[in-house]
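Sorry, any thoughts here?
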Amino acid sequence: MHSPDYSISTPENVDLHLELAGLGNRVLAALIDTLITYAICAGLWLLTALLAIFGLPFRAATPIFGFVILLTILLSFAVIFGYYIFFEGTWQGQTPGKRVAQIRVIDQNGQPINWSAVWLRNFIRVIDTGLMLIGLIVMIIDKNERRLGDLAAGTLVIRERLPDLGTADITIAPQARENAGMLDSGRITPQEYDLLLGFLKRRDKMARSQRPLVARELEQHFRDKLGEPSNGQQNSELFLEKLYTAYQMRAE
């Protein structure tokens, strides 16, 4: 198992250890995404050629055919540049290629990537990939393997380590299952889930004075992450159990 390459300490004193994606995984993801975008563009041009060959109203040397050619060029451009923006924005930092390579783009503070960062890092992709592959050179030099787009947007690419979904030695109160599906557990990273799971498995072995303090720190961290308002009347461990249940339901 690889050692974490990047550590983040949250305001709640919760340490997150992240493993950087690595050059090989990023190249693999880029190759897959490039093949997909080129295949889509090839399909668009094939359709345009078929329209000309089979004598539909789009014959060559006619204004309408010129419009179709221009439209195909614009659509190809939109696919090549919009592909990454669309998937990284809607798939929380992943594209089909990144999903296959099991890597993900995140904010450098450990939070999910936002739309402004998605747009910025992919706008600079033109320089990273088009100017003698300068992005590859920068990744080799930078200790956190960031290309120019990552440096400008404040992002990292990490390995998507699958969390341990084991339920052994975890006791969940019946009320923790009530409305568990209302929690947006999809915003929790595998590393954060490991923290949650580790606490729930080991809490019975913690000192009485330490256990509630750790539970409150974790609760506050996850409430801030999910945008959940604080509830002073709710037991911290009950909230963590509810979040654990929500994550399990999402994984099924």
Observations:
- The chain has a mean pLDDT of 79.
- The longest helix spans residues 23-53.
